[in-house]
């Protein structure tokens, strides 16, 4: 019952093992699956495979399903094998036998490819917006504190003078470069896989799907022409997306590490409102920046998601195999992690308090050693000779 592939009754334990938590994952992807199904049935109608009345009935049924799945707390019932079967069998309730027509010229393979592709496009647009928000927050703080001097460090030791504006601006510049990667990824994802079927297309068959039609309906700029490449891109495009989003969490981790150092009592360069801290169960005086520690640690968790997907696809041969199903969950969780990190990063930057007194006090004379050497060279001295003279001053 409720199997798209016939009346075989699978072993219950084996079925549970194969399905795993896929229904929960498909629930999050279902709106995109319904959207792609709507484009697909409209394409079938354009080929005169559905009448205007039949199309209208199916469209109404899909729109009703869309309302149902958008309700808070919705879950795909466990009686269904996956989100795809949920759509087809639920349509029977409103469309009767018409629901049997919707799967013509597609497979669950290109169905999955398309819903995941649409999900990734939507989330990548969101990541770009959120990255821009962090950039804006950094730009504002950098502008306010552009002239505030602070020590620069190499090897965790004082090195040369810099400014708060330059420190914040370094992350701003890095995030702006990350937008280039995001734009490149958008171009790669902007290919319609719907119509590739089971990964071999429909060449030589009497009826062919109109892939350009569905591309237009789903706002893809082009069609992924080679059906085997469409199949190959499952998991591969996910890796491309996550690898090109990885700089966001890497930079956030580095920023958090900086702040964890600079907010210690010994430095006290910066602080955050008390509401950004937690306390200790035993030490009443403590105000801990746990948020920065979690922000720092998220990068390792994120890379673990990437490695999960990489491990699934690296040993797979051409053509669909079901362990690709396991790549959906780490994809969704990784993207949610990036979204969460960017939200917190923006909030931290916006609420960053700059402690001018401590920063000024930290601007000790040795920070200007290189400047003294350079000034002497500008006056006609030899660099290495002047370098050794200044070095001896600070060895006294």
Protein model, in words:
With 396 residues, this protein is mostly helical. The protein folds into three domains: 90 residues, Orthogonal Bundle (Fumarase C, Chain B, domain 1); 255 residues, Fumarase/aspartase (Central domain) (Fumarase C, Chain A, domain 2); 31 residues, no CATH class. Helices cover 63% and strands 5% of the residues. The longest helix is centred in the N-terminal third of the chain and has 37 residues.
What are the key terms here?
Fumarase C, Chain B, domain 1; mainly alpha; Fumarase C, Chain A, domain 2; 396 residues; two-stranded parallel ribbon; two-stranded antiparallel sheet
Would you summarize the structure shown here?
It is built from 13 helices and 6 strands.
List the helices and strands and how they pair.
Layout: H1 12-19, H2 22-46, H3 52-69, H4 83-95, H5 108-144, E1 149-154, E2 157-163, H6 164-189, E3 191-192, H7 211-217, E4 222-223, H8 227-262, E5 270-271, H9 290-314, H10 328-350, E6 353-354, H11 356-362, H12 369-378, H13 383-395
Parallel strand pairs: 3-4
Antiparallel strand pairs: 1-2, 5-6
Helix pairs in contact: 2-3, 2-5, 2-7, 3-4, 5-6, 5-8, 5-10, 6-8, 8-9, 8-10, 9-10, 12-13
Summing up helix and strand content along with how strands pair, one would put the structural category as mainly alpha
Mean pLDDT: 93
* CATH top level assignment of the largest domain: Mainly Alpha
Question: Judging by the overall fold, what is the CATH architecture of the largest domain?
Answer: Up-down Bundle
Largest sheet: 2 strands, antiparallel
CATH homology superfamily of the largest domain: Fumarase/aspartase (Central domain)
What percent of the residues sit in helical stretches (DSSP H or I)? 55-70%
Number of helices: 13
- First and last CA, distance: 87 Å
CATH fold-level name of the largest domain: Fumarase C, Chain A, domain 2
How many domains make up the coordinates?
A: 3
Rough outline: elongated
Percent range for β-strand residues: 5-15%
Strand elements, count: 6
- pLDDT under 50 segments (min length 5)? none
Q: Order of SSEs, N→C?
A: HHHHHEEHEHEHEHHEHHH
Q: Please state the CA-atom Rg, rounded to the nearest Å.
A: 28 Å
Strand numbers in spatial order across the main sheet: 1-2
